[in-house]
Amino acid sequence: MELTIIILGVVVIIFLCVFLYYVPFFLWISARVSGVKISLLQLVLMRIRKVPAAQIVRAMIEAHKAGLQDVTRDDLEAHYLAGGHVEKVVHALVSAAKANIDLGFKMATAIDLAGRDVFQAVQMSVNPKVIDTPPVTAVAKDGIQLIAKARVTVRANIRQLVGGAGEDTVLARVGEGIVSSIGSSESHKQVLENPDSISKLVLRKGLDSGTAFEILSIDIADIDIGKNIGAALQIDQAQADKNIAQAKAEERRAMAIALEQEMKAKAQEARAKVIEAEAELPRAMAQAFMTGNLGIMDYYRMKNLQADTQMRDNIANGPK
Q1: In this structure, how many other beta carbons lie within 10 angstroms of the beta carbon of residue 155?
Q2: Could you say which DSSP state residue 186 is in?
Q3: How far does Cα 81 stand from its chain's mean position?
Q4: Is 52 in a helix, a strand, or coil?
Q5: What are the distances in angstroms from CA 69 to CA 64, 72, 79, 95, 104?
Q6: Are 38 and 73 in contact (CB under 8 A)?
Q7: Of 174, 226, 223, which is closest to residue 201 (Cα–Cα)?
Q8: What one-character DSSP code corresponds to residue 154?
Q9: For 223-232, what is each residue's pLDDT tens digit?
Q10: Sign of CA dihedral 71, 74, 76, 79
C-alpha cells in the first residue's frame, strides 16, 4: 500500500513538472497581472516551436508598460526565429520613445538583423560619441611637415544604420580632409595660428554622407611640427642633379679619351706611311740615276736644300 502511494506521488510530480514545462501557468499569470493579453495555448505553442516564452513575455510586458502599441507577440516571435535579439530591440524602442527619437519596430529589427547593436545606437543618438583620430601627417606649401590629431564628435544616424559606413570610413574621411586643409595652406604658421580653420574646412565637406553617423564637431586636439620636407626634397634634387652632371662629365671624358686614342692611331698610321715613303726614296733616286732623269748636280742641289732647311728649322726652334 505504501509503495503504491509512493509510486502514485512520483507519477503526480512528474506529471506536474511536464505540465508546468509545457503549460507555463505562472508565466501566464504574470503576463495577465501586467496587462498583457496572451493565452495559455499560445504559451504552449511557443514551447513546441522552441521559442523561449519567458523572454517573449518579458519583452511584451516591457513594451506594454512603456506604451508601445506596435509591438506584438507574433512580431517578437518572428524576430527571435530570424536570429534577432528580442530584448535589445525592445530596450532600444523604449529608450527611443523616451528620447523622442523616431524609431519603429521594423527599423529596429532591421538594424538588429544587420548585425548592429540597436540599443547602443539609440544610446549614441542620445549621448554623442567622441572618436580620437590617429596622428595625421600633412605638408604645407612651404614644405614644413605637420602632425595633427583630431577629436570627432558623432552621433548615430538611425536612418543610415542599415547599409551605412562605419567609424573607419569617418576616420578616413576626416584624415583626408585634414591633409587637404594643411596642404592648401601657404605656410605652416597659418595652420598653427588658426587650427580651427582645419575644422571649418573639413566640416564643410559633408564627410558624414553615406555613413551611419552624423558628425557634430571636429576639434583639433594637437598639432606638432615634423620634418622640413621641402628642404629634404631640395637636397635630394641637388644630389640627383650632381650625380647627373658627374655622369655627363664622365661620359664626355670617356669620349675625349677615345677621340685622343683614335687621333694617336691615325698619327701612327701616317708616320708609318711617311717612313715607308722615305724607305722608297733611295730606290727612286737610284732608278732616276740609272735612267738619266737625275744628274749628280741635281743630287747636290737637293742635299744643299735639305741642309738649308734643317738650318732654318734649328734657328727657328732655338737651342735645345
Answers
A1: 18
A2: S
A3: 40
A4: coil
A5: 7, 8, 17, 15, 11
A6: yes
A7: 174
A8: E
A9: 888 777 777 7
A10: negative
